[in-house]
Amino acid sequence: MLKRVLFTLLCLLFFIPVFAQTHEDSVKNNQVTDTTVKRPAVDSIAKKHVDTTRHAAVDSTAKVHPADSVVKPAIVDSASTHHKPTLKGAKKSPVKTAAKPPVVVDTEPKHSTVKTINDLRYNAYLKGDDLDAMSLAGDLNHFPSPDSVLKYKKQLDLSPIQVGQLAKLSTELHRKKVEMGINIIRNEKMLDSLFHMRQIDEGSLIFYTNRSGLYYGEMKGAILMACYNTEKLLTPAQIKKLETLEKTSEVVK
Q1: Where does the chain have alpha helices with state H?
Q2: Is the pLDDT of residue 185 over 70?
Q3: What is residue 253's predicted lDDT score, i.e. its pLDDT?
C-alpha cells in the first residue's frame, strides 16, 4: 500500500512540470499566431500609407509638370522672335549680277595708227560705224535695222514695249561693232608689224588673215542678227510705212 502511494506521488511530481511546460508552450504558440495575424493588418496600414504617399508624390509631380511645359514654349518663342530679324536682314541683301562694262567711245577724230587703215575707216571702227553697208542683205529684204526704226518711232506709232526692245537691240549692236572694230585695228597692226620687221611666215600669215576675216564676219553677223530680231518686233504695216518714209527722206535730200 505504501509503495502505491509513493508511486502515485512520483508520477504526480513528474507529470506536473511536463503539464506546466506544455501549457507554457501552448501559450507561447498562441501568442506567435496572434502576432502573425496582427502583422498583416500593420503591413496593410503601412502599405496604404506608402501608397498614399506615392500617389501624393505622383500627383504633386504631375501638378508641377504643366508649369514646366508653360515655361518651355516661352523660351522657344523668345528664340524664334530673336531669329526672325536675321532672316529679314538676309532677304534685304539682293544678289548683284555682274553687268557688262559700257563701251566708251571717243567722238573726237583721231589719226590712224596703222598704215594700212586710213583715218576715216580708223575712226569708223572706233565709233562702231558701218562703212561697208553690211546691213544691205536685211535692208533690201524688209528686215530693217533697229537704228533706222527708232529714227521714225513717232511716225510709226511704236508702243513703249517696242521702243524698249529696239533700244536694247541698238545698244548691244553698237557695243559689238565697237568691239570688233578695235579687234580689226589690232589685227591689222600686227600684220603690218610682221611684214615691216620681216618676221612674217606662212603660218602667221594664214593665222592673222583668217582672224581678220573672223572679225569682219562676226561684225556682219551681229548687224544682220539685229535686223532679223527687229523685223519680228514690227507689224507688216509698220515695215511698209518705214520704207515709204525712208524713200521720201532720200528724195528730199
Answers
A1: 2-91, 119-127, 136-139, 146-151, 160-196, 202-233, 236-252
A2: yes
A3: 64
